[in-house]
């Protein structure tokens, strides 16, 4: 293995950045493809998309060249929940079982208590203070569920600017319309705002907080794992 490429791969891992080491099985030189690179026009684009989504290493067969082994380094997915509400109480254990690192952020002491949430995931502070020390990234999902623009809007803007793989917000279509106006006034583009799933969660007719949590987690997992067409 190329030592320099290995060092770069380790650097990307430490910084929660995804990368794939491409190793021809006939001994030709290896190359490293970072998730942040412009790899969509690469001959391996379709395979890279699938591997970045799945996080699984493996062999790729090439019709006009040697088979390749793709060593995939993808950070563990994170879920940042804005709002220590009833939906969040149900969503936290479900997401942890599904393999997500979870954080709950809410400055409201009446909601953000250790009696309701594990201390190691709870941040009883304003989102801007927490996210300044733990920035969002493309392998993070953000779910804003407070119904309070003073709390939700900043992390939504941060998530869209950080290219989080999922951004969802609680609220009716009317509520989201007003939200979109605020975000546009804050400088976001229409295409960025359209990335927000609102109302949040899959349309399964969920009624209780627990059912809504199932709908939200299903939508998040779909956004993480379901392949998309290159160039979409």
From TrEMBL:
<dbReference type="InterPro" id="IPR027051">
    <property type="entry name" value="XdhC_Rossmann_dom"/>
</dbReference>
<dbReference type="InterPro" id="IPR052698">
    <property type="entry name" value="MoCofactor_Util/Proc"/>
</dbReference>
<protein>
    <submittedName>
        <fullName>XdhC family protein</fullName>
    </submittedName>
</protein>
<dbReference type="Pfam" id="PF13478">
    <property type="entry name" value="XdhC_C"/>
</dbReference>
<feature type="domain" description="XdhC Rossmann">
    <location>
        <begin position="79"/>
        <end position="220"/>
    </location>
</feature>
